[in-house]
Structure formats: structure tokens, C-alpha cells
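re: that complex we talked abt at group meeting.

here r the seqs, copy pasted straight from the sheet so there may be weird spacing, ignore it
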Amino acid sequence: MCDRKYAIIGTGALGGFYGAKLQKAGLDVHFLLKSDYEHVSQYGLIIESKDGDFTLPQVNAYDDVTKMPQCDVVIVALKTTQNYLLSQLLPPVMKNNGVVLVLQNGLGIEEEVAQIVGNLNVIGGLCFLCSNKVGKGHIRHLDYGQIALGEYALNYKATGITSRIQQIAYDFQNAGISIELTEDLLLARWQKLVWNIPYNGLSVILNARTDELMADSYTRQLVEQLMYEVAAGAKITGRIIADSFIQTMLDYTIKMKPYRTSMKIDYDEHRPLEVEAIFGNPLRKAQAANVFLLQISCLYNQLKFLDTRNQR
Amino acid sequence: MCDRKYAIIGTGALGGFYGAKLQKAGLDVHFLLKSDYEHVSQYGLIIESKDGDFTLPQVNAYDDVTKMPQCDVVIVALKTTQNYLLSQLLPPVMKNNGVVLVLQNGLGIEEEVAQIVGNLNVIGGLCFLCSNKVGKGHIRHLDYGQIALGEYALNYKATGITSRIQQIAYDFQNAGISIELTEDLLLARWQKLVWNIPYNGLSVILNARTDELMADSYTRQLVEQLMYEVAAGAKITGRIIADSFIQTMLDYTIKMKPYRTSMKIDYDEHRPLEVEAIFGNPLRKAQAANVFLLQISCLYNQLKFLDTRNQR
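got the structure back, here u go
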């Protein structure tokens, strides 16, 4: 059990952080990189973290999946805007009976990955992590860090807690990463969207932090209406989000420190936005059942416009 | 008939332009001003116009309605954001049997004015005018200029063409202002909103010109959906906007020169936005019938946020 080999597909703010923690705990971790490959091969990774800084002077770095060993757990830590690459990246690095652990935002990603590696080989994880890449191989972990892990099965059928996710959770917890096991991955994904859709979307469209959105009565109301639209989307897929959950998210955000969302950071740095994973996929799920989430759709179209212009 | 006296309540880009045209044609016009009062009293008005420049070295300028003569036609040419002043401005300047002609954007303004001067004394006009105030008493007329005139009656009952609006139309046409008479003022107002709601709203929210909104397939679609929501609002008040009208508006906008909307100009110059007249009133009309125009509502809340921040 101790010889689980991990692959990190995408060694950025998220993959670099979790991968480094796993390696530091003694696990065998293999990192796929692109632009930072040369630098990380030579100097390793630097992690500044609120839980304690550390460096890994030597890591297993690759710029090509075909050079990587086959791994038991392949962690997808790319932005979803890169997911068109997965059909080439995943097969070479996956061991027989290995699993892919999708640590990405949004909805429907596990379904896409299952098309590549099969329905029985996918696990999903939702990260509550605030970290940035501040230089080549240099990651700054600012806050949070916990992961909700859940099994994926065909059509997101809730399958409860399996032994393999318990094993992965064990590795992560040993590495100091807080894990929550969820019996219903799809519900967990919708719940995360309750926060991500209003705040990520409006922060970009209105150039605003979370505290500004909550201090204005009009955007405060729009945030709440968007949350209820997410709940309506969840209901279409058979998942119930209680009103009390929405109220908790609102209260929690009011109490949070002023926060620039991850999508706003991507926008400000002219990186592609995860509009399809976070907005487009939920909209299409609802639309397939002839339900139109009109305010989410309004944000989606606005974001698509802004994203295109921002990439020019 | 030739001795109709006109008052211009608000001598800006719109009131200054139409008032000057009327005076130039020989009519007796009285201008209410605020910040430009001293200057215009002394130097009059300068109109640069695509139809021919002219100056009026002397005009009847006032900074106080109680000093104005009572007029047959009182033209409201303020921005709707100033309409809280009307209950004080209108009564002193209105002759018995006079009428108020509301030349403002949005919906429901005639109802507000009728509360002040009575249901029988209100006429509405929709201006298709592109002009700016470029200095004190100095107006630049860039394009268009026609007005659609219609009678107001209680609850916007369509009353056909009356002789008094024909008389006013006669004065305007003599002054070189193109007039269309409409039998149904409320329909005309909804029709204008078909254009104003999507383009004014999105131009501010997305910092975009009309051509940019139409070139992107996502905002192009959002524009169209918003137009259909306006048509749904119109239907609640018993007015039918045909699909072909919407298609005409879309085609017309694609062929237009790149255009910065009037709301965007107000926003860029940190003036208050006419959000309530253009967005709030239609939403409330629909909501009173338990219909929620969700995408318009999304824009409304976004604009309220932006307007507040922009005024700080």
C-alpha cells in the first residue's frame, strides 16, 4: 500500500502544491511540466505555505508523458481549459487498475475523463485551496487546502465510500492534507458551484471582490438568485441543495476576508477562463432537460465575450 | 396657432438641440438651465449640426421656473435621474390647457408626470437623436434627430392621433425636425426598449461598442434573448412586438456604424445612469403580473452596482 505511485499532470499552483506535499511525506511522485520543466529538473520545487515553508531540491520532472512511469494515481491538476490534451496525456501514464483523480473545478469533467480511461477508473476531488504560482517551480500557499474526494461512476451514480478512495485519503492525510470523503461526488460538485458561479462570474464581469458584491444590495440579491439557479440545476440531476446551504454560503462569504476569486486572478493575468467547466457544463445539463437557467446563461455569455477579448 | 409658447425643461444635448431648432423656426421658446444659465443668458446657444450649424445669440434663459412665462407645451428634456424634481418644476410653467411633452427614455415616465399635471395633459415622445453637449450652451448634433410622438392616456390606453399632437408635430416639422405620429405610445416605448435594454446595458457592463457586441456570437445571442424578454414584457401590457421587429433591430445594428451608447457615454463621464427608467420600470411592470424577466433583471442588478460605484 505504501508503494502507490503518483503522477501530477500539471505542476502549477494546485498540482505543484499537493504533489510536493505528497513527496515530502515520502511518496513516489512524478511531475509533468511544460514551461517550468528545465528549471524544476534542475532546482526542484519551492513551497511557501502558511503551514510551513519547504523545498524539494530534487523531484521527478518530465516534459513528456511517454517518459513517465505508469502510476497508480494520476492526478489531473491542469486548468480545465487544457482538457483537450487529456486523451493524449492520460493513457501512457496510467497503470492497469490505476485511477485518475480529477482535481478540477466545474461539472462533468469526470465524464470526459471516463471516456478516455473508462468509467471504473475515475475519482473526483474538489479542492478548497488558495495558492498561486509566483515563479518557476515556486508556489505560494495562502489559505485553505482541504479536498473533498468522491468516487465517480457512470452518470454520477452515488456509490458511497470505496476502499480505494480511503487509501488515497490516507496518503493525503499523511501528507498533511485535510480530506473529506463524499458519498455523492455530483452533489459535492453542485454545492461547490453554488459559490463558484456567482462569485467567480460576477467578480470578472463587474471587476469586484467578494466583499464589494456582498455590500451592494443589488449584487447581493443577484448572487442569491444565481445560487438558487444552481440549486435548480442540481435538482434536474436529482441532487437537492437545501435553502439553508445557500444561506450558509452567503453568510460565510460575508464573513470572509475580501477575496479576489480564482477566475478574476486568471482574468487579470490574461489566462483563459474556465467558463465551460463552471458555467457551460451546468447550463447544458439543465438544457438537456429543457430547463433554462437564464441568469447563469446571462453570465455565461458575458464571460465568453470577456474571455475572448481578454485573450487577444 | 402660431403663438404656441414652448418651455424647455433641461437645456442639454437634447433639450438644447430641439429648443434651438424651434426658436430658429420663429417659435417662442423659453429655456430652463442650471449650470449653464449665466453663460447662455449672455451668449445664447451654439448648435453644430450635420444638417447645418447655427447660433442663437439671444435666448430666453431662466434658472428658476417661477420666473418663466406659462407655456402651452412644456418639454421635459432632463435625464430621468432628475425626475424627482418634476413635481416642483412643472406646475409653475404650465398654462391652463397646456401639455407636458416628455422626451425621455424608458417606461412609465408619462404616468409619473400625469400624477403631477393630470392624465389629460401629457404627451410622450421618443427621440432618436445622437447629440452631445460639448461646452456651455454648445451642442453638437451628430446623427438622426427624429421623434415619435404619441398621446398619453390613463394606463397607456392607445388613443390614436389627436389634433393637439398634430399641431405640435406641425411646429416641429416646420423647424426641420422629422416627426412620426404614433397611435400607441406604450407600444412605441416598448419597441424602443427592444434596442435600449440590450445595447445600453451590455455596453456599460462589458465596456463594449455595438459592433463588438454583434461580432461576438455569445453576446449576439444574449442581445437577442434580451430583446425577446422585452417583447415578453410588452405582451404583459397588451402590446405585441413581432419577431420580425426584433430581427430588424438586430440587422439594423449590425449595419450601423460602431456606436457608443448614450448610457455608456453617461457612464464614462460618471453621470448617473437611467437604470430605473430603462430597466427598473419594465421589470416592475412585468413583476406586477408575476412575470420575472430574468436576464433583464440580471443586467439591472449589475448596472445598479456599477452605477453606484461609478458615482463615488
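couple things i noticed - Chain A touches chain B at residues 202, 205-206, 208, 212-213, 216, 218-219, 221-222, 225, 294-295, 297-302, 304-306, 308-309 (CB under 8 Å). Residues 87 and 115 of chain A are 9 Å apart (CA to CA).
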